[in-house]
Structure formats: structure tokens, C-alpha cells
């Protein structure tokens, strides 16, 4: 039973960490400008991206990258395990990803 619980915990951790990453397909009907390799109407604040271009989303600690296959990858911070006696604090959004992610502060 102990092994099953450990395995379940590991699988849940992997699932939730993977959920912090997203892939958004290119929107060819909207992408009419040849200077953009990637484009999606779901992220109007981003607009178009050149192939390989990476930037951080405004007001969020997420990295957006235009992939070679024209998909847009969004990479978040993932989950944070907080030891007893410590707390997770929001990161500094003036920094780039992943330096803008959560920090752990202990007593």
C-alpha cells in the first residue's frame, strides 16, 4: 500500500507540473503578416512572433516562445512545495522567466 501511495503522489506531481505548460496552435486564418511565424487570436496582447522569439507575458510570470512548427509554447512556473515553517511568496514580475517565479521564505 505504501508503494501505491508513493506512486500516486509521483504521478499527481508530474501531472500538475506538466499542466503549467501550454501549447497553442498557430492560427493561419489570422496570421496574414509574413513577418510573423506564429500568431494566435487567443493572445492578442502578444500579437505575432518571429520564429524562435521568446518573451514574457505582461503581468504574469509566463514565458511565450514561437516554435519551429508555428505553435506557441507557454511555460509557467509550475508547482511549489513549501516546507513546514515556510511560505511561498509571489515572484518579482520585473524579472524575466523563471526568475519571476515564486520564492520560498522561511522563518
Automatic annotation (TrEMBL):
GO terms for cellular component: extracellular region. This is Single domain-containing protein. It is found in: Secreted. Residues 1-19 form the signal peptide. It comes from Acanthoscelides obtectus (Bean weevil). Keywords: Secreted, Signal. It comes from the Eukaryota. It holds the Pfam family SVWC.
Amino acid at each position: 500500500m505504501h508503494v501505491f501511495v508513493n506512486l500516486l503522489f509521483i504521478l499527481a506531481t508530474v501531472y500538475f507540473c506538466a499542466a503549467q505548460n501550454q501549447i497553442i496552435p498557430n492560427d493561419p486564418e489570422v496570421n496574414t503578416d509574413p513577418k510573423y511565424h506564429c500568431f494566435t487570436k487567443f493572445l492578442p496582447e502578444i500579437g505575432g512572433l518571429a520564429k524562435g522569439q521568446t518573451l514574457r507575458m505582461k503581468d504574469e510570470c509566463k514565458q511565450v516562445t514561437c516554435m519551429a512548427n508555428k505553435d506557441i509554447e507557454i511555460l509557467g512556473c509550475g508547482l511549489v512545495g513549501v516546507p513546514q515553517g515556510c511560505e511561498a511568496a509571489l515572484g518579482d514580475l520585473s524579472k524575466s522567466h523563471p526568475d519571476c517565479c515564486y520564492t520560498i521564505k522561511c522563518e
